[in-house]
Amino acid sequence: MLSEGVILEEKEISQAVIGRLPRYFRYLGELKDEGVERISSQDLSELMKVTASQIRQDLNNFGGFGQQGYGYNVEYLYHEIGKILGLDRQHNFIIIGAGNLGRALGNYINFEKRGFIFRGMFDENPALIGSRIRGVKVMPMNEIEHFIRENDIDIAVLAIPKSGAVAVAEKLVRTGIHAIWNFAHVDLNVPEGIQVENVHLSDSLMKLSYNIRKAAPNGE
Q1: Is there a single domain that holds both residue 102 and residue 55?
Q2: pTM: predicted TM-score of the whole model, two decimal places
Q3: Which of 18, 37, 130, 150 is the 20 to 30 A CA-CA neighbour of 82?
Q4: How far apart are CA 195 and CA 91, in angstroms?
Q5: Where do the coiled-coil regions begin and end (predicted)?
Q6: Which residue range(s) make up the domain with 19?
Q7: 102 marked as part of a ligand binding site
Q8: Buried b / exposed e along 53-69 (16+ C-beta atoms within 10 A)
């Protein structure tokens, strides 16, 4: 089991491993809700379509959680992975862009279940300013820096066209924002210490297109 006070920075963890942690967390949460108390790496492997060896290797990066002949305590592992992912604390976020994508993200209530609290939305379109998404008012862009500093905002979500994304990101950097979740179709270059997750929806769709073609008879 993971000992108290483990510092993850002591060991460089690959992005591939980190990318699998949310899946472990999700599956374990479902098992916990179903009343499952323990599970072997083999059974978890069959559920997740990841090899048992891969599961053990991934979890061993963080000290290991299983016991020989017992497997994993589902609730304990669920909560420990949540801590590794930083889900044991609240993250306040804002959305920049009150268009269709921004509104869809603002209406996604599952963020709150994971500790991500929707605090504000910003746009430069006068027609959208003053409207509300789940009680959160759309504010003008000239108020964003003050709002971030006064409301302990950790994460800014960019749901705007790429033409304005770089300038907005530069403004966010000046506020001391910790992380940017970027849906604009441009990769952002920000100073070291600010975390950026680029989400290119069209890239995901093209990957799906490739897999359709690959699975077709004769690759047609």
Answers
A1: no
A2: 0.83
A3: 150
A4: 14
A5: none
A6: 8-84
A7: yes
A8: eebbebbebbeebbeee
Other beta carbons within 10 angstroms of residue 140's beta carbon come to 14
133 in the same domain as 57? no
Straight-line distance from the first to the last Cα atom of the chain, in angstroms, rounded to the nearest whole number? 49
CA distance 28 to 74: 6
Residue type, 82: G
**Residue 96 included in any domain:** yes
Q: How far apart are CA 217 and CA 220, in angstroms?
A: 6
Q: What is the pLDDT of residue 45?
A: 94
Strand 72-73 versus strand 38-39 pairing type: antiparallel
Q: Does the annotation place 106 within a ligand binding site? A: no
* CATH number (domain holding residue 36): 1.10.10.10
Is 69 labeled as ligand-binding? no
To the question of whether residue 71 is assigned a binding role by annotation, the answer is no
Instruction: Say if residue 68's pLDDT is above 70.
Output: no
Is 78 found in the same domain as 53? Answer: yes
115 is in an annotated binding site: no
Query: Is 100 known to sit in a ligand binding site?
Result: yes
Measured distance CA(117)–CA(109) in Å, rounded: 9
Q: With bands split at pLDDT 50, 70 and 90, how would you rate the model's confidence at 63?
A: confident
Is the sign of the CA dihedral 101, 106, 109, 113 positive or negative? Answer: positive
